[in-house]
């Protein structure tokens, strides 16, 4: 990615902001309550180049720097977290292919992903393995020029409307440590042996689908083994998730920003005991704390993104940004609900949606417990005595 936002990248950001204000915010809550998939909005995102934000131009992408990347995710999530979900894991797949794919894989998959013709996702988690990904039991067995995949994946975002996925599987189930026997593949729907079984009914992050997948002797051509060599899949997936942390942090910031804006608007209109509630000091303290946490989240995200732009190691900083910004989303959406009183609990106002959406960013992209472990591990390396 380029180190500084160009004029073109600023223009993309402005376009996304206008799109969110005009097209997304007016319809998001009603569509979410109806459980309606945002096909038309996703198509507009494809026209804006948002499916190719981390794909180089030579593969038809609209690659932007990481600061612009994070700001776009914040803008989309300010309107509707689920909409950002349509491109979230899609871009993780693209990131892994850009960094680790063979030239043939890049040429075959990146242009379609960049234009949104292909819609992507990542198949890592399983019923018995989420945080502990080395414990997956999906197996890919080589048979001549193809692998046969058997196993089940759980929680796969974009699984129903997407068609191209990163699949993490074991190619050597007896390897010790387990990660040495894990490989990543780019897989396409079409061949028999892959069933998208059910859409998981969720608290929030609705309409973007999250599904269970079952593989039974599903064939994957050997040339779809990412990087062309077995045993590197765990590293590929971890690198992809590291890049995802900045986008998940940015999504948390967007939800927090939306909740805060609703709360501060409402607080100036709602009158109790003869004055707007914004004039009560307890409400002012809430507004001040919410805005301070939001500003701190923004600075953490941008600082991690700038480090990434410079090509520096930023796993700890991205983890800190993810941890703080997503906890902020959860806190601020709840505080916004309190400020709106009974209206905050009603579907007539969008705050209940922010409150239901926020926990997804606390859990997804590596839980915040895991972020704390990553941060602490890095700190102990840095301050080793
Ligand atoms: C809406 C939604 C969409 C998702 N989309 C995708 C997707 O597209 N692709 C995909 O692969 N996955 C996806 N996931 C799965 C998500 O990545 C996992 O839910 C997450 O990684 C946690 O795994 P788990 O649910 O198995 O929880 P577990 O790993 O079982 O963890 C349970 C609890 O224990 C904690 N914990 C675990 N290990 C430790 C430890 N060592 N120390 C301290 N605490 C620990 C966790 O933080 C958590 O609080 C999605 C999840 C949701 C809810």
Write up this protein:
It is a single chain. The chain is α+β, with helices and mostly antiparallel strands and 385 residues long. It folds into three domains: 7-118, Orthogonal Bundle (Butyryl-Coa Dehydrogenase, subunit A, domain 1); 121-231, Butyryl-CoA Dehydrogenase, subunit A, domain 2, CATH 2.40.110.10; 235-382, Up-down Bundle (Butyryl-CoA Dehydrogenase, subunit A, domain 3), CATH 1.20.140. The chain has helices at 7-34, 39-47, 66-79, 81-100, 103-115, 233-269, 281-309, 315-339, 351-363, 368-382, and strands at residues 120-123, 139-143, 146-157, 164-170, 182-188, 194-199, 210-221, 271-272, 275-276. A hairpin with a 2-residue loop joins strand 2 and strand 3 (146-157). Helix 1 (7-34) packs parallel to helix 3 and helix 8 runs antiparallel to helix 9 (351-363). It is globular. 50% of the residues are buried. The site of flavin-adenine dinucleotide has 22 residues, from strand 1, strand 3, helix 9 and helix 10.
Short characterization:
This protein is α+β, with helices and mostly antiparallel strands and 385 residues long. The chain has helices spanning 7-34, 39-47, 66-79, 81-100, 103-115, 233-269, 281-309, 315-339, 351-363, 368-382; strands at residues 120-123, 139-143, 146-157, 164-170, 182-188, 194-199, 210-221, 271-272, 275-276. The protein has three domains: 7-118, Butyryl-Coa Dehydrogenase, subunit A, domain 1 (Orthogonal Bundle); 121-231, Butyryl-CoA Dehydrogenase, subunit A, domain 2 (Beta Barrel), CATH 2.40.110; 235-382, Butyryl-CoA Dehydrogenase, subunit A, domain 3 (Up-down Bundle), CATH 1.20.140.
